[in-house]
Amino acid sequence: MSLLRDAMSINRGFYEGGKRTGTNQDFWNANSDFENTASPDRDTMRARARWLHENNAIMANIDATIVRNSVGNGFTFQSKCGKDNIDKQIESLWSEFIKPKNCDVTGRQHFGGIQQLILSQRMCDGEIVIKKHLSKNKKNPFQVQLIEADRFDTSYRVRVDNSNILNSVDGIELDTMGAPQNYVFRDGLMSNVKVPASEVIHYFKMGNRSSQYRGLSEYKQSIVDLRNFAGYQTSTLKSARARSSVAYAIETNNVQGHMASMLQGNKEGSDPIYDINGVMVQYLNQGEKLHQYDPAVKGAEYGEFVRACVRLIATARQISYELAFRDYSQVNFSSARASFIQDHKRFSNEQWHMVTYVLNPLFESWLDANVMAGNIKGLGVSAYFINKSDFCQPRWVAPAREWVDPLKDINAIQKEIDMGITTIEEVAAARGKDLEDVIASRVKINKMLKDAGILTKEEANA
Fold it and tell me: 295 and 255 share a domain?
């Protein structure tokens, strides 16, 4: 009966994806919340991802490409609350804050470098924690500290006497609604420290599960492919080196004479032939024949294998093959342009994510600290907190986005401006510039040219 029941269970199922057969029995069929599924593998994947990042040039290049195009040297800040005096003071204070000695508790990183590190570490480790620090230094009342994922105290368990805390997930205390209340970090071999959720920004990308509270390495879908690719490449190189090391073989019937010659050492006339034109010689025993050993991989086959692996890796990281491998030999201009457009959408999403979940919250806390320290003249604490949204109006200018075909792109942009479907301000922002700065620069340059007699008054005012 059991055999019949097993046979029926294998065939039963309206949906093809729900059938259990011998070929799909290795599927993971357990259903549980995200953290129960991910927690056992999180640390292992993070360790493997770090190894790959340091030892695999393809993955390191993908990360560097995403960081360069998404963050560049850091987002440029502008205050747009509409009150010129307040905006100028905020921008002046921010230009001081971003210096290493002011923004980083360790005094090592410029704020642009901190942005690069945040994005890079989120991709590799899956998550990073930014802790907000308030100081008694009136001129510099706010700093940030980066905490790596290894510091999470995953062994921490909630005490039963705390009625406001429902559960803990790998070092995060949750309330009865599932909102993070405290983050618990290791502070030594046997001790930990609890930090309120309001004092940290836990930065990671949530996938398709609402029960996710911790990040996973974004290498997760490509770790096995990368390892297989590295192993194949290593084997290919070893076989090539082996072929270059043994080129000649000598077959002899005088085994005793050959052995005697070897035993006699370096006596004159007794040395056997060890190399021919600098290439190693291998002796065969009596009765042995030489058969060619050719572990060679045909060039076309190897190249196609490499491209297939890189395509899988690039797909897992959601960027084009051309950008991942810097290989544009397989596509024409139109195809490359189409890939470039999709890559730009990927970078735009990264920029939105960074602004929404890191830069805006950090700026708000920084502005709170400076207002309470009295660093902004004409803006009292009460007036600020009553109308906070009116004053907390940051604009973040992303790195300049280069054109694929400058002349065609410029003509297309000009037509969009003429049709009224885009503005000069939006075009300037896409180039990593502020329109007000561009206009001020043009006025200054025209005045200089006019004063030098290079431009007429009419040309300068055109």
Answer: yes
